[in-house]
User: Which sequence fits this backbone?
């Protein structure tokens, strides 16, 4: 499934916006008043007639209607000028009592999960370095924001900005391959899969991969993304030099040799120290891997954990809430002497998933009141659906019913038990992972000892997390994904450390958004943030856990925000980072509201 930034051009007839809708004014005329005659004693003088209020009443009514007329005219003018048009659209007049037309150049940009969305009139897509330099120069001069945004895969929309964005999707070339040094220089807009395809004929590939392949290289590096393997660092560690287009200092190149302090800081710079235009990456020889999937339990994992971490190039655990099941997935190079293992699976792919299909049919009968003999015409052929697609459809029926979610989790555990076995393929094919559909995710990173001496805190974290889920009756779907990396020397990386042998565990909790129903998505979102808040308050400080930059969410509560800012300062060199931002981008044209709130100047914290 293609997972990419969603960009739509607005059209007046297809967008709905809330605005002030005027209503016709109605009023009833007041009844005429009659002069009251008071009785007075007889007098020879001619009495002065009592003045009638007709003239003053008429004046009052006139003022009232003039006021209403002025109000209507003012609202009409305000409505018109509230929607600025491009010059070629000035003929589109706003009309009273109707929605005012929107400008033709308005873009709607959302992340892949649909959890964050902005509308902007400024969306640059330069085709080469010179065009990018001009865009940055003009924005710096005008002090207008152009936040760098990649493929829009970050669950928290860290690259989005209503004020304006710059996207390098058209700067996607492989510029140079050095087979001897096993390095490749690329434009930062190239996607991971494009890069891998572009260098495979040279016998090279990337050292590690995240779960999916649609990220732009600039984006995956800047947010400190990672794969898995306790001997392998996060992806920013693969970068050996970068070319940055900065607002204040123009285009600069940084590396271990050229300005090493800025180089390490900018490798995981969150797009705020300059637009990453080019990246030189250390690659490895292209190789086939054998993936081995087994199903274990907590007791066995504790016994074999150190061995699993040290003896496998890549390893991850998939924990299934409300069960004792732990799915263990290891990946290692195919032996040159023995070749790939010979293995005959006990179950076919159809047999492994059939019980999930049966659960789907059963759930349809319960939740949609239909029979399997006469299904709804718009229901898909379930035999064509993958496991993750079936899981989404199952969850959509009752996503917050804990008992129902437990049934789905149990079905997932059984699916993995029937899917045990081996798979052989190139690393870019094997190391991917079908994460499922749209979702909310919170992923934290925390120290787990060293490879020689694991602290076992990683397994304790999972035990505490699962107990918290069960105690709080959280309808937590599967899986809880757990991965490991070596340390990073980038100080802004969640896995940064001065200890050369340190390892870090990454744990992700999840709630899927399997429906487009706004009410249901809102309810799932509220439940997810309750789930996340519980893990934050009970576990993060205890395990020194910090969220992945692409998954951190900014609190709305001022006290919570202040606590988060203080917490980030304890872990990361925020003052040094802000100093570099001031020097390279004094007008903060590469920033957005999220970064401004996470990293305010020290005097405002």
Assistant:
């Amino acid at each position: 499934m293609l997972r990419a930034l969603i960009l739509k051009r607005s059209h007046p007839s297809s967008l709905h916006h809330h605005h002030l809708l005027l209503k016709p004014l109605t009023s009833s005329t007041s009844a005429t008043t009659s002069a009251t005659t008071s009785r007075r004693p007889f007098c020879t003088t001619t009495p002065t007639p009592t003045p009638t209020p007709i003239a003053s009443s008429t004046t009052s009514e006139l003022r009232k209607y003039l006021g209403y007329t002025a109000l209507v005219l003012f609202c009409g003018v305000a409505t018109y000028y509230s929607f600025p048009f491009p010059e070629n659209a000035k003929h589109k007049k706003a009309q009273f009592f109707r929605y005012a037309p929107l400008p033709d150049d308005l873009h709607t940009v959302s992340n892949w999960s649909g959890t964050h969305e902005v509308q902007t009139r400024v969306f640059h897509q330069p085709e080469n370095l010179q065009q990018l330099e001009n865009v940055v120069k003009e924005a710096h001069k005008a002090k207008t924001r152009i936040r760098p945004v990649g493929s829009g895969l970050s669950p928290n929309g860290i690259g989005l900005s209503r004020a304006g964005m710059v996207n390098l999707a058209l700067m996607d070339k492989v510029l140079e391959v050095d087979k001897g040094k096993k390095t490749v220089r690329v434009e930062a807009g190239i996607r991971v899969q494009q890069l891998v395809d572009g260098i495979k004929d040279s016998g090279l590939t990337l050292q590690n991969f995240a779960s999916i392949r649609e990220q732009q290289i600039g984006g995956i590096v800047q947010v400190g993304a990672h794969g898995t393997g306790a001997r392998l660092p996060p992806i920013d560690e693969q970068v050996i030099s970068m070319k940055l287009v900065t607002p204040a200092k123009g285009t600069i190149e940084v590396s271990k040799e050229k300005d090493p302090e800025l180089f390490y800081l900018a490798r995981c710079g969150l797009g705020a120290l300059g637009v990453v235009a080019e990246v030189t990456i250390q690659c490895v020889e292209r190789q086939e891997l054998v993936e081995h999937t087994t199903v274990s339990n907590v007791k066995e994992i504790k016994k074999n954990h150190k061995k699993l971490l040290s003896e496998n190039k890549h390893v991850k655990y998939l924990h299934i809430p409300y069960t004792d099941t732990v799915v263990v997935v290891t990946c290692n190079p195919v032996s040159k002497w023995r070749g790939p293992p010979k293995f005959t699976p006990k179950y076919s792919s159809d047999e492994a998933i059939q019980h999930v299909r049966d659960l789907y049919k059963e759930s349809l009968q319960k939740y949609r009141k239909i029979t399997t003999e006469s299904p709804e015409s718009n229901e898909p052929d379930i035999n064509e659906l993958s496991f993750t697609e079936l899981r989404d459809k199952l969850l959509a029926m009752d996503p917050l019913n804990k008992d129902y979610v437990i049934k789905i989790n149990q079905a997932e555990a059984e699916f993995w038990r029937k899917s045990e076995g081996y798979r052989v393929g190139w690393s870019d094919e094997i190391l991917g992972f079908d994460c499922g559909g749209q979702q909310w995710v919170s992923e934290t990173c925390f120290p787990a000892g060293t490879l020689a001496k694991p602290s076992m805190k990683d397994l304790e974290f999972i035990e505490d997390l699962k107990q918290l889920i069960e105690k709080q009756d959280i309808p937590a779907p599967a899986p809880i994904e757990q991965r490991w990396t070596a340390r990073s020397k980038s100080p802004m990386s969640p896995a940064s450390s001065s200890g050369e042998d340190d390892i870090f565990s990454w744990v992700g909790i999840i709630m899927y958004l399997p429906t487009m129903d706004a009410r249901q998505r809102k309810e799932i979102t509220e439940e997810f943030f309750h789930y996340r808040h519980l893990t934050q308050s009970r576990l993060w400080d205890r395990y020194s856990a910090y969220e992945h930059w692409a998954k951190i969410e900014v609190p709305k509560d001022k006290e919570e925000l202040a606590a988060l800012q203080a917490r980030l300062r304890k872990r990361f060199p925020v003052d040094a980072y802000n100093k570099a931002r001031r020097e390279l981008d004094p007008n903060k044209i590469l920033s957005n509201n999220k970064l401004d709130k996470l990293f305010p100047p020290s005097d405002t914290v």
Remarks:
- Residues 54-81 form the longest helix (28 residues).
- Residues 10-55, 83-100, 370-375 have pLDDT under 50 and may be disordered.
